[in-house]
Amino acid sequence: MGCFSRIVAGPMVGLALAFTALQPADAAEGVSVFSDPSKIAAIGGSITEIVYALGEEKHLVARDSTSRYPKAVLDLPDVGYMRALSPEGVLSVNPTGILALQGSGPKEAVDVLKKTSIPFIEVPEHYSREGILEKVRIIGKALGADAKAEVLARDLDDRLTSAEKQTASIKERKRVLFVLSVQGGKILAAGSETAADGMVRLAGGVNAVEGFSGYKQMSDEAIITARPDVILMMSNAGPPVSDDELFGNPSVASTPAGAARKLIRIDGAYLLGFGPRTADAIHDLAVSLYGGQVTD
């Protein structure tokens, strides 16, 4: 998921650094089509979902830990969290190609993988309808499934366009504060250029915070000033935060969302994946925000 790209980093293990020296100088980076797509390692939940949506899952030999849908993908070897990869873990499955979502890391590990002889295709991540369609077309081309990708892209384009229109007539937009975590009473919230910001906008809401990109720890004053109508959180990420803990925070309690105890929890991969299920996620979030005002 793109949502951790600005807050999670990890040091490279010593063995991986040593491994760099063993690789050929000519990197297999920059290709757009795998010459041998028989054993592909998919890094990034949305990439894996798109491969399955294309009906090309036979190519997959491994996944990362953010790839949890569809259920069948759990049978594949897990090479680790996409932002804390080790080259050894990825290379241990002997892939003939690597499909990695932009933001995979740490940078040192990705640099090592790009210097191997194994083709490495990085898939851009943009938190928009166009960004999803771009991912579908890039992945389809990489696997030699261009025609399937175009059919899927057209279907998703129609569904995403319809999903966005469901809140077009709503006049009063909800101010939404996406809370990534609560640690030591401090709120870590989503600014611009995040998957959370993109989803809130697509569902007809307004990001309650402004002035920064990525994820940032907010001061009590900033939370009160943001005046969120709704708090949005992932239902399955990090240490669990109870409703009482969240609304017991004095700054949150001082907001309209706190006064109404308005909290929406949605599965993180579903909400922030920006893949084949995003149109449904937009609809579900919109209904949670606006109820019967959402049109079909």
In brief, what are we looking at here?
The chain is of the alpha/beta class and 296 residues long. 37% of the residues lie in helices and 16% in strands.
SSE layout and pairings?
Elements: H1 14-20, E1 40-43, H2 45-53, E2 60-63, H3 87-91, E3 97-101, H4 107-114, E4 120-123, H5 129-142, H6 146-165, E5 175-183, E6 186-190, H7 195-202, E7 206-207, E8 215-218, H8 220-226, E9 230-234, H9 243-247, H10 250-253, H11 256-260, E10 263-266, H12 268-272, H13 278-290
Parallel strand pairs: 1-2, 1-3, 3-4, 5-7, 5-9, 9-10
Antiparallel strand pairs: 5-6, 6-8
Helix pairs in contact: 5-6, 6-13
Describe this entry's structure for a reader.
- InterPro entries: ABC_Transporter_SBP, ABC_transptr_periplasmic_BD.
- This is Hemin ABC transporter substrate-binding protein.
- It comes from Rhizobium loti.
- It holds the Pfam family Peripla_BP_2.
- By secondary structure, the chain is an alpha/beta fold.
- It folds into 2 domains: 162 residues, Nitrogenase molybdenum iron protein domain (Rossmann fold); 119 residues, Rossmann fold (3-Layer(aba) Sandwich), CATH 3.40.50.
- It has 13 helices and 10 strands.
- Strands 5, 6, 7, 8, 9 and 10 form a 6-stranded mixed beta sheet that branches. Strands 2-1-3-4 form a 4-stranded parallel beta sheet, covered by helices on one side.
- α6 runs parallel beside α13.
- The longest helix is centred in the middle third of the chain and has 20 residues.
- It is globular.
- The two termini are 28 Å apart.
- The relative contact order is 0.14.
- The N terminus is likely disordered.
